[in-house]
Amino acid sequence: MAAWGSVFPTPINMSLLEDEKMPQLSLSFQMPKGKGGRLGWHPIFENVESRAVQQHNHVLGRPYSNNFNEANIEYRGDATASAGNVELNKIQIGDQVYLFRIGQVIHTEHIKLQDFHTKQLTNFTTHFSFIIDTSGPNNQNYGDGLVFFIAPVGFQSPANSAGGGLGLLDNSDLSDHLSQNKDPIVFVEFDSYADPLDPPYEHVGININSLNSSVYTRWNSSFHSGDTANVWISYNAVTKNLTVSWTYQSTSNSQEISTLSYHVDLMKVLPMEWVIVGIGGSTGFQYEHHILKSWYFSSDLDYSKDMSKIKIVVVLCVSIFTSALIFVSVMAYYYMVWRRNLQNKQNDSEGISLIWIIHDFEKGAGPRRFSYRDLVSATNNFSDDRKLGQGGFGAVYKGHLSDLDIDVAVKKISRGSKQGVKEYISEVTVITRLKHRNLVQLIGWCHDRGQFLLVYEFMPNGSLDSHLFGQNCTLTWDTRQNKPLEAVDQRLQMEFDEEQAKCMIVVGLWCAHPDHTLRPSIKQAIQVMNFEVEKPDLNLQMLAPMYEVPSAEAPENSAEPLISNSVLQIGR
Questions:
Q1: Which of 191, 271, 346, 467 has its Cα between 20 and 30 A from that of 371?
Q2: Binding positions for ATP (predicted)?
């Protein structure tokens, strides 16, 4: 089977066939100028005789031997391949006579008639050869004819379309068909049956959506019975002309016109991008023999160009997507490498700090190192009954170190905690540098098996916040006096007068006495701080606060303040 794209020379002169003893015909097909300067002859099928014609006519391209068995031909109805030709209709097998038969061959490759995006209509040319055998020139009982048609994709012969319907239109209401067909279809008919409704004689016609020919000319099929007809049909998208011409190899009639032309806009008649083309024969009450010998088709609106554009777009999109994917992958890879290097640097820095801390600890300059096994044993494998509390960075467990015979609090930093090596090092570094009798002492540390643990001195009385914010947070006067002394600013390096500190605390507590009548005056406070008088002997028990409520009988317009006499004591 020929491929698309063979050069269609201009002009095509039918006189090239004179060596086959055909009459010369001064008819040529001029290529329309404009886009698509090439037409591809597509030999759909041919037989040996048609190849003989090709030897004298290079228009038909290089020879092919298809014998009607190619994959791009669909046989419908009675159509069958036979001896290098196509038999379109069954006529008689033995004593069996077949009437009302349909046979068609369809080009299975869809033809692009027009491009909706560019509003471009195709130019096409088709050439086929056929024989109609009416069983002799004196036989008057034959019919119905042969057609070349262009139809929508998916077209099927309607029911009851044999005979006068030529396999294309339904015969149920012939008058309706003569007016307009509901499905768009364009066909060229070689009508061999004299029908009074469609010119009352045999004819060749161009039909648009109807059995009633738009333009026609007389034709005598019985005169040419058994002779090979060569038909050329072309359409010019610029002039909108559909042209048909035919010639016979042996028989000729000077009275017959062998060409037709009709102006039709296929873009309007067939409002679709894709169509199918086919050739068919049909018989009715009378019959005749239809033989298709060869068929070629070409068009210049090659859908392969559209496919090429689509392929280019697809390849471009795939290339851009692939390039973007590669770029993103490379950037992600370098980002991960950069993050890993940065993490390694941080880990190296933290590791160096940790190594120095370990070195200092092991030199005896700080808390000692415990093994993970020792802490597991001390806390009973970190059991829940030993848990003292849960914080944001982990849990604290009570433990007992048997070798030191002391109770300890073990802080186990959880793996999911935000506190990492950096925070761990910072905590160890800060706590080891702070030394105060009121700060919990760091006894040791452990970071075996990827675990971070800190061992603190156990506080049996709880932490300071439990006394300040707990339910029973009332302190005795002794506690109030002694604890602040223990919390004296460490910047004094414990070099301060304890008596002065006690005196300051006593005066402060005296001034905050719950009973305002027992509070000192400014003079009394200064005398105590200057050690001019003895410090007051404060009750060791916290007294309940007492507040004096103003009398309801006080004069409304009195300018005197509602202050008890006890406030206006000596020194006030």
A1: 346
A2: 412
Reported as a single tens digit per residue, the pLDDT across 219-273 is: 988 888 889 999 999 999 999 999 999 999 888 877 788 899 999 999 999 999 9
Residue 309 in marked binding region? no
| Length reported for the chain | 572
Structural domain of 389: 366-467
One-letter-per-residue 3-state SS of 188-247: EEEECCCCCCCCCCCEEEEEECCCCCCEEEECCCCCCCCCEEEEEEEEECCCCEEEEEEE
Q: Identify which of 491, 146, 108 has the alpha carbon closest to the alpha carbon of residue 287.
A: 146
Task: Name the amino acid, one letter, at 1.
Answer: M
Is residue 480 domain-shared with residue 388, that is, in the same domain? no
Measured between alpha carbons, how far is 118 from 375 in angstroms, rounded to an integer?
Answer: 84
Report pLDDT for 125.
94
The answer to whether 225 and 143 are in contact (CB under 8 A) is no
Helices 303-360/421-433 angle, 10° precision: 20
Q: Residue 481 is part of a domain; what is its CATH number? A: 1.10.510.10
User: Once rounded to an integer, what is the mean pLDDT over residues 70-95?
Assistant: 86
Check whether residue 335 and residue 438 sit in a common domain.
no
Helix 498-511 to helix 477-486 angle (10° resolution) is: 130
Query: pLDDT tens across 162-181, in order?
Result: 888 899 998 775 554 444 55
User: Helix H segments across 451-542?
Assistant: 464-469, 477-486, 498-511, 522-529
* Same domain, residue pair 445 and 488: no
pLDDT score of 559: 47
Are 470 and 463 spatial neighbours (Cβ–Cβ below 8 Å)?
A: no
